[in-house]
Amino acid sequence: MKPLFGFLPLPVAVFLLAFAVSAISGVFLIPALRRLKIGQTVREEGLKSHYAKNGTPMMGGLLFLTAMVIVGTPLCLAGYNLLPYMLVTLASGAVGFADDWIKVVRKNNKGVSGKQKMLLLGLVSVAFTVWCVFGGTDIARLVIPFLGMDQPWAVPFWLAVPLGVFILLAFTNGANLTDGVDGLAGSVTLVVLTVLGVIFSFRAELDTVRLFSALMAGAVLGYLLYNFHPAKVFMGDTGSLALGGATASVAVASGLPILFVLVGIVYVLEDLSVMIQVFWFKRTGRRVFRMAPIHHHFELCGWKENKIVAVFSGVSLVFGILAVLAAM
User: Fold this and answer.
1) Which domain holds residue 253?
2) What domain count does the chain have?
3) C-alpha distance across the termini of the chain, in Å
4) Which end is more exposed in the chain, N or C (fewer Cβ atoms within 10 Å of the end residue's Cβ)?
5) Is residue 114 scored above 70 in pLDDT?
6) DSSP string covering 313-325, please?
7) Which residues, at least 6 apart from 198, have a Cβ–Cβ distance to it below 8 Å?
């Protein structure tokens, strides 16, 4: 990739541009969301400490999606094949947007049902993995931890495709569950995207996904300016599902599903906490955690939101560094 302005590495320039666009978008989009009364409604069964958040503008994911489109489109026109990753991000975000719209604008707390949401995200995941098969990506070259990026395991497509679909669904859902504390989903995802960008730099053929990771990381950082506690805006399902689709798509396309389990460890823990809680409650009538997903458990244990964000982001960084070492 050629440096921008003759000296600035393109991923760095894209990161900075996306950050600026996302940050500037917030100046206009957040007041617009407030005027349209698109605000958060905390459920009665939710945490009492969150009741003060009622009315906070939602659909803040539009900030980083706007930045992705504005900065990413010229890159696509310049020959960088970011379009498939942008489309899976937008499609995942569209599923979340429908859910947010039904809940907030139509005042229907049920929103899009879980089955409908999984079906729609499943279609997005299948479409993307099919593109990976025919689009010349590394989906059939699975990187095994500690064997190095240059010694991937060749897997048959009949295994690579369902694995790709599973990773996309699992981590999109994981990102969605992580969004429950001011700044948490954005901070964790920022770490994930940064770590992935470092890993992608090990191989020149992964420059496209590295560029997309830089694009999304900058856009998410711009959004976080408004989302740290106390949050001025929430990303909603519009943002969380989009982030899950973005991160999982680059991991799948680059042959990194196994390493992604390390990089996205917080997503994994959030998924598992809900599965364990539901399974154990149905079986025994008792709870393993005070509340699931697991970040709410720590809230009920007395952790402040900023502490949860710091610890969970730190865990992501530690496991991310382990993933980088495993990829070398």
Assistant:
1) 10-327
2) 1
3) 22
4) C
5) yes
6) HHHHHHHHHHHHH
7) 324
